């Protein structure tokens, strides 16, 4: 096709076209899933974590806002930390008009490869202010072993 025959941008705005496409896709999802009011409600999520070393321990801190202690499970399997559980949605507020609901609810799972060999049986965990903190002692082994000559 000869580029000289293509129409110039003129009144065409690519950003307006993208917004139109987004609106069409939202309408399509609303038609296909009428019971679902907001596509963002169907999300799978995993807690965000910080992992660091302190005093010969591996420390993992995971954000799990709204989770109760009894709804969280922590395991160490094959040198991986497995965090799973569920954040339950509070009673639906039917009297209130929501403008946006972005908090995460539902089941979650996160498998975190640990950066060193650990003593899994000595691990400790606690939940406070929406943060799960897991402290796992590192496996200590001598870096240098003297071998006796015979």
From TrEMBL:
Belongs to the small heat shock protein (HSP20) family. Residues 44-150 form the CS domain. Residues 40-150 form the SHSP domain. This is HSP20 family protein. It comes from the Bacteria. PANTHER family: HEAT-SHOCK PROTEIN 20 FAMILY MEMBER (PTHR11527).
């Amino acid at each position: 096709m000869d580029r000289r025959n293509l129409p110039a941008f003129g009144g065409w705005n690519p950003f307006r076209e993208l917004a139109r496409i987004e609106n069409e896709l939202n309408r399509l999802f609303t038609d296909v899933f009428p019971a679902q009011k907001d596509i963002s409600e169907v999300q799978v999520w995993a807690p965000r974590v910080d992992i660091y070393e302190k005093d010969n321990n591996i420390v993992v801190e995971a954000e799990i806002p709204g989770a109760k202690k009894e709804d969280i499970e922590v395991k160490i399997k094959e040198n991986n930390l497995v965090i799973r559980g569920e954040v339950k949605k509070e009673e639906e507020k039917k009297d209130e008009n929501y403008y946006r609901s972005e908090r995460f609810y539902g089941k979650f799972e996160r498998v975190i490869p640990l950066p060193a060999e650990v003593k899994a049986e000595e691990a400790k965990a606690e939940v406070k202010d929406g943060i799960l903190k897991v402290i796992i002692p590192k496996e200590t082994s001598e870096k240098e072993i003297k071998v006796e000559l015979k």
